[in-house]
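Format notes (please read before filing issues)

Several people have asked whether sequences and structure tokens are stored in separate files. They are not. Every record keeps both together, in the order shown below: the sequence lines, then the token lines. Line labels are part of the format and must not be stripped during preprocessing.
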Amino acid sequence: MDKRHLIYLSREPSADLTARFREAGWDVETVQSTRSVARLVRDRPVAGGLVDLSGFAGSDLDSIEACLALPNVGWVAIAAAGQLSDMRLRRLVRDYCFDYITLPARPERIVDAIGHACGMVSLEEPSLGDASPSGEGQMVGASEVMLALFRVIRKVATTDAPVFISGESGTGKELTAVAIHERSRRRNEPFVAINCGAIPPHLMQSELFGYERGAFTGANQRKIGRVESANGGTVFFDEIGDLPLESQASLLRFLQEGKVDRLGGHAPIDVDVRIISATHVDMESAVNEGRFRTDLYHRLCVLQVDEPPLRERGSDIELLALYMFERFRKEASQRLHGFTSDALIAIRNYGWPGNVRELGNRVRRSIVMAEGRRITARDLELTDHVEVVPVTLSQARESAERQAIELALLRHRGRLGEAAVELGVSRVTLYRLLSSHRMRPVEGGDDDASPTQART
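Then the structure lines:
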């Protein structure tokens, strides 16, 4: 498996600790001077960082802070007993490190802490199937409902049948449509998204199917319609429930014949596209009330995909918040280090009526407006949702263990061997833990679309 990278900054590096890291699969770069850290960070896109504060003096703190502020490194500090009574040192550890350990400490404890810190800074990586996600075609999730969605996406992507995506506003229906397109045989052809609610009704016909020069006053040149522009690829009709009845008849004809008629044209034009549509409208009510054609609805809804609301995604809410934090953190005027505990409690307790879109907006706004080093529930404007639900110690321990396993599987795309190394357990032990938590491992192939493989 690929080795993880560790930057070990210490005046007197421990040979025993270095050996333990290498045994655990880490590529260790040991440095004794802060000047070398920046170069190593440039060479390592994501790395764990261990800073041994016990060998540094107060005059070194400025250069240490410069190292800790470097991006894409998950820092853990180790300090001598009593050393953190220094207020400036305490501030550095609090603001820049994911964890700290007071010496003496077991090497295994330090190795585990570094694995967690490195995993946290790499949370931006998980996506639906791609090792390096970019743009908007990325989906993050480890919950059962999201794993089920990923399985459905993989299945419907293998056919050209029309797909209908239903779900509340802000759940990510367009991301699902993009994921289906990118896993289909049409992946190298255009993906054209059409928001049916954003086009004026009197322009809908010409926008969808185009027109010839002279078709009407002002038509000075030929225009290719959006459906025709996607020839060979996929057309995504977002908010299809808002499509005017006149355009519904034209779309139905196109679905039946595979041809478009430009306004002012004299002959139909063959167009080969795959149709995906989506809406938050209750389509059965729209059909019963005569606002949407029954025959068109049945043409569009050959395969149906239900997009789960954010409130049903369990621990994915926290994962998505961390993912969005990493995505937008560059917009902050200061270096931020994630969320406070009250913010995470509020994120879990809030109902998210605006779903993923609302979560992204709140996280992005809080990154800009935050006054401290971490985002608080107040920054998210969720102070009314910080009430903690009482749990027993046993329940808390079980929940933390399950979450740690889910996160490790998410970071390593379900590869059990790598997840076991990060968790500091053997592969056999990880199997036993999966069984005790009623989580079934699923080994994914190269084309596996889910970012983690563990389900109840």
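For reference, the curators noted about this record: The first helix runs from residue 15 to 23. The chain has three domains: 4-121, 157-306, 310-385.
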